[in-house]
Amino acid sequence: MKKIGVFTVLVFTAGSLFAQLDEGRKMLNYERFQSAANLIKPLVDKDPKNAEAVYWLGQTMIQNVENGDTAAVKQLYRSALEASPNNALLLVGMGEVELMEGKTADARNRFEAAINMTKKKHLAPILIAVGRANVDTRAGDVRYAIEKLNQAATLDNQNPDIYMILGDAYRKLIDGGNAVTNYQTALTFDPKAARASFMMGRIYETQGISQENLYLRYYQDAINEDPNYSPVYYWLYMYYYKRDVNKAREYLDLYVKNADANSKLCYVEASLFYVSKMYKEAIQKADACIANSGAEKPYPNLYGLKAYAYDKLKEKHKAKEFFEEFFNKVNPDLIGPNDYATYGRILMDFPGMASKADEYINKAVDLDTVKSNKINTITEVAQSLYQQKDYAQAGKWFTKLLYIDDNSLTKTNLYFAGYSSYLGNEYKSADSILHIYQEKYPTDLLGWFLGARTNEGLDTTQVAAKPYWEQVIAISDTMQDRNASKGMIVPAYRYMVAYYYRIKNDIDSAYLYTNRILELIPDDATALSNKEGFEAMIKQREKNPAKND
Question: How many CB atoms are closer than 10 A to CB 348?
Fold first, then answer.
């Protein structure tokens, strides 16, 4: 048998260990965190001084950290640093933990120390780790990350990881153009970088249905580049979740095939009951997932799923309870706009919670980058309040619709914002909104009618309403079919009758407008009575002209 030399064995072993670490990093990219840990932890157990393995084991733990629970990963990095206090990669890892704890100054000191102690030829991986830490954490400084990643690119300009993280950084800044450019660059250096195509699809999906063909094409590109990349199957499952249950099930099966068996996977299976409108079954499955999670922390979205299901079942107290548990357990970075919006709408049903409800719904609107979603959220809230006859609050939310963009000042939006504010006795708000309505649609009877009603509310003498009622009459005089709008025209005539009789003591004008009422409603009892009275007054005046001079 041919003997293998000691040097050859060492090289082979080192290569094998590197391959195992590389496979662990690949699992991390696939968001298969348990598989990644299972590959990397034995390397750390075998050699606790293997700083690279320790760093990446910590990264698998960070991905599973929920609600700021950093104790385990912090202990891992701390112990490794006690043995190797000057290891730059471990310093970056500890800095990332400190960012997660909100200790931004301490984290920056760690990052700068790691960079300063590293020689130029070894610096690129450290700069990449600093960039990743600042992009992946809520408290991270994204512009600082971009600076360090660009510096890394001058040292290692063909490393796809640099451009992938740069793409994430620009995406976090809501700079889709630069994000896409960097993801495309990552693909030029690694044509199998499925995550780059996936993330470009995510960016174009935020632009709405008009980009549907484009973002679905990018998702398919990701599958073609790497059929084992599980996040794309999960996203496509969620995409078809409310569109096509059968297609959603196909992607669920592919996700199950390519994902770790854990409580997140159990959640995905439970959510299929929800989309099938089997809300009780969704709750039962979620409970089973939580109960069977063992030593693993249950996937926080299981509590969110229960909250949504209870909301659909109209069990508001239960829905509120599980939304609060969900928010308590989940990483805040992973709470979506719809979570905040739904919880806010639920809070509206509880006395004394209006202010808190507003806070959560506003957070949802601010967080959502898709304009159509913002519009849908605000509209649903406003309509719900309107149906509950909470007109003042409804008017406030309808008014928010007016300022989404330059195209938001539609007749419908202006009407509901103005009319709801009027019904809620918010006359100043209603008046300013209706002024916009009147300027944009000067020949529209409704804008002037509502303006008249609003000014009656603003001015107890009701004199301020006169110009608006005059506009109603002027516009109605040009209409061929006045009967269709007599619900707005007749009140204008009634106002003029009262104005000329009570304020101006002008019986002739009051009499004229009374007759105009009768032209539209010949049997109007009030007008008939007024006509009789005015005719009597006019006859009396004609008999005694001197008395009326």
Answer: 20
Of 208, 213, 240, which Cα lies nearest the Cα of 373? 208
Domain ranges of the chain: 442-549
pLDDT for the residue numbered 524:
95
CA dist., res. 441 & res. 451, Å (int): 13
Cα–Cα distance, 286 to 251 (Å, whole number): 20
Q: What is the pTM (predicted TM-score) of this model?
A: 0.65
Displacement of CA 422 from its chain's centroid (Å): 29
Q: How far is CA 415 from CA 410, 422, 437, 441, 451, in A?
A: 8, 10, 8, 11, 11
d(CA 394, CA 419): 10
- For residue 141, the model assigns a pLDDT of 97
What count of other Cβ atoms lies within 10 Å of the Cβ of residue 141? Answer: 18
Amino acid at site 197: S
Give yes or no for a contact between 425 and 392, defined as CB atoms under 8 angstroms apart. Answer: yes
Under a CB-based contact definition with an 8 Å cutoff, are residues 430 and 410 in contact?
A: no
Crossing angle of the two packed helices 391-401 and 371-387, in degrees rounded to 10: 160
Nearest CA among 280, 279, 286 for reference residue 265: 286
Mean pLDDT by 10 residues, the chain (549 residues): 41 63 94 92 94 95 67 94 95 96 96 96 96 94 98 96 97 95 97 97 84 92 96 91 85 91 87 89 96 84 96 96 94 87 92 91 87 87 90 93 86 94 95 96 95 93 92 94 93 96 94 95 96 93 70
Whats the size of the chain, residue-wise? 549
The sign of the dihedral angle between the CA atoms of 97, 98, 104, 108 is negative
Q: For domain 442-549, give the CATH number.
A: 1.25.40.10
SS3 311: helix
- Cα angle 403, 405, 408 (rounded to 5 degrees) comes to 70
Query: Concatenated DSSP letters for 96-124?
Result: HHHHHTT-HHHHHHHHHHHHHTS-GGGHH
Q: Output the six-digit token pair for 487.
A: 């619900």
**DSSP string over 196-239:** HHHHHHHHHHTT-GGGHHHHHHHHHHHHHH-TT-HHHHHHHHHH
Tokens of 367: 């967080």
Q: How far apart are CA 110 and CA 90, in angstroms?
A: 9
How far apart are the C-alpha atoms of 166 and 164, rounded to whole Å?
5
**CA-to-CA distance for 36 and 44, rounded, in angstroms?**
13
Q: How far apart are CA 309 and CA 106, in angstroms?
A: 42
Of residues 407, 413, 411, the one with CA closest to residue 395: 413
SS3 category, 191? coil
How far, in Å, CA of 204 to CA of 212, rounded? Answer: 8
d(CA 87, CA 85): 6
DSSP code for 331:
-
Collapsing DSSP to helix, strand or coil, 478 comes out as: coil
What is the rounded CA–CA span in Å between residue 70 and residue 95? 12
DSSP 410-472: -HHHHHHHHHHHHHTT-HHHHHHHHHHHHHHSTT-HHHHHHHHHHHHHH-TT-GGGHHHHHHH
